User: Which sequence fits this backbone?
């Protein structure tokens, strides 16, 4: 008999610490013991598990990396051509220059580009460049930016207990304790917190780092105010566009808000799932990369730039963001309607292409677990988040919302009768980390 996903995951936990490479891909984050965990093949928003059971992905869609849908024919044709032409060499691939020109054309405030292959790594490059440019050590930040030391340093507490409290759920063991006091967090839309950091440490801050948008929209003047405070401190203002980028327009979400940073960082959606990341910036700031050492063999391969060029060109030609916004809005409206019909109190947030909902006043993960369990039985990968792709059709959304209309009433009545835990087939999902958003 073939091995099921949950069986393989048990094996994985014995040979891979944590079982997976990404927190969000741990089955415990979704439906412990029952999440399919592994896929055999995928196309568009369809995914087949190890038992060849098909699901429609109405959840994270490669955790935001699949923006056009998996196996997009245009991107994959370009990738196949790059493989046929040789994907690595002692010489450089010309596409990295072409991509730099395209990124700067989309973001006229930027003149130079460096590359990496994933978001957290590209953020670490941006921070290094900002530190090199300002000759300062400290940073102020808001939101999640990856696993690197510069960021987790925020969780090095006052005591020796390496028990994170600022970024709940992220532990900083292994991050040198000497980095304590180098990363100061502030909350989104709370300019006064950044102002306080500026008053206390302004002359030492190398960079102010934040996503232009994540959950709630920026309050009027927030992004402009953050930029102004950063510049008043003499710091580099950096937008992390790893998740928001290419979802509200063809380029950084900041373009829709009219606030230009000094640097911006892209990954995930820019290359439809092929590993690729870019740090773009003003040339005076970016040139500081020459005063330090930032270099890697794998940043010079060809598939990433080729996939990014094909993804961005298709995005631009077909106005992909308009589809993402339309599909995401349908889902948000549908959640609200289905919840109202069922008498379920939910809260919906996020930009439409990266939508979230949760049951109000629910401080457990039981409701999310129940929703995932019931939706899986109906053929959907689903949870509290929906990331739209170009491959989602109205039919997918209609079928999904019909299933929500079946599940929400059961959830509401189980909550009312206090029987929810007895309806779960397995343990409740684990809570993730909390963003400062
Ligand atoms: C805003 C933001 N920055 C950085 C990262 C890290 O990117 P990666 O997982 O590609 O390292 C993420 C990942 O979710 C993100 O959402």
Assistant:
């Amino acid at each position: 008999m073939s091995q099921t996903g949950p069986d393989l995951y048990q094996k994985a936990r014995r040979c891979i610490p944590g079982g997976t490479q990404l927190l969000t891909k741990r089955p415990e984050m979704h439906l412990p013991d029952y999440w399919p965990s592994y896929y055999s093949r995928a196309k568009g928003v369809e995914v087949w598990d190890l038992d060849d059971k098909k699901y429609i992905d109405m959840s994270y869609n490669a955790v935001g990396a699949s923006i056009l849908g998996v196996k997009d024919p245009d991107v994959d044709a370009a990738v196949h051509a790059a493989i046929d032409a040789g994907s690595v060499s002692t010489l450089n691939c010309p596409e990295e220059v072409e991509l730099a020109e395209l990124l700067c054309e989309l973001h006229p405030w930027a003149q130079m580009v460096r590359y990496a292959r994933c978001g957290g790594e590209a953020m670490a490059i941006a921070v290094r460049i900002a530190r090199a440019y300002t000759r300062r050590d400290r940073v102020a930040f808001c939101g999640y930016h990856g696993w690197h030391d510069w960021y987790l340093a925020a969780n090095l507490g006052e005591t020796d207990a390496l028990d994170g409290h600022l970024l709940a759920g992220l532990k900083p063991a292994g991050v040198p304790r000497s980095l304590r006091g180098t990363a100061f967090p502030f909350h989104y839309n709370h300019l006064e917190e950044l102002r306080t950091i500026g008053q206390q440490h302004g002359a030492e801050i190398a960079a102010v780092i934040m996503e232009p948008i994540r959950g709630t929209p920026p309050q009027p003047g927030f992004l402009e105010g953050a930029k102004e405070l950063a510049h008043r401190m003499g710091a580099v203002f950096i937008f992390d566009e790893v998740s928001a980028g290419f979802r509200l327009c063809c380029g950084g979400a900041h373009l829709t808000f009219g606030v230009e940073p000094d640097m911006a960082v892209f990954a995930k959606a820019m290359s439809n799932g092929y590993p690729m990341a870019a740090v773009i910036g003003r040339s005076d700031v970016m040139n500081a990369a020459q005063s330090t050492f930032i270099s890697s063999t794998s940043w010079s391969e060809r598939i990433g730039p080729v996939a990014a060029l094909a993804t961005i060109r298709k995005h631009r030609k077909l106005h992909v963001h308009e589809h993402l916004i339309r599909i995401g809005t349908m889902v948000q409206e549908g959640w609200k309607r289905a919840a109202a019909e069922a008498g379920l109190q939910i809260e919906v947030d996020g930009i439409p292409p990266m939508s979230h909902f949760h049951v109000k006043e629910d401080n457990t993960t039981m409701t999310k677990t129940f929703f995932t369990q019931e939706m899986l039985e109906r053929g959907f990968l689903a949870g509290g988040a929906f990331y739209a792709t170009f491959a989602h059709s109205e039919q997918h959304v209609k079928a999904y919302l019909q299933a929500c209309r079946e599940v929400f009433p059961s959830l509401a009545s189980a909550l009312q009768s206090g029987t929810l835990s007895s309806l779960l087939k397995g343990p409740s999902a684990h809570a993730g980390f909390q963003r400062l958003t």
Notes: The chain is about 40% helix and 15% strand.
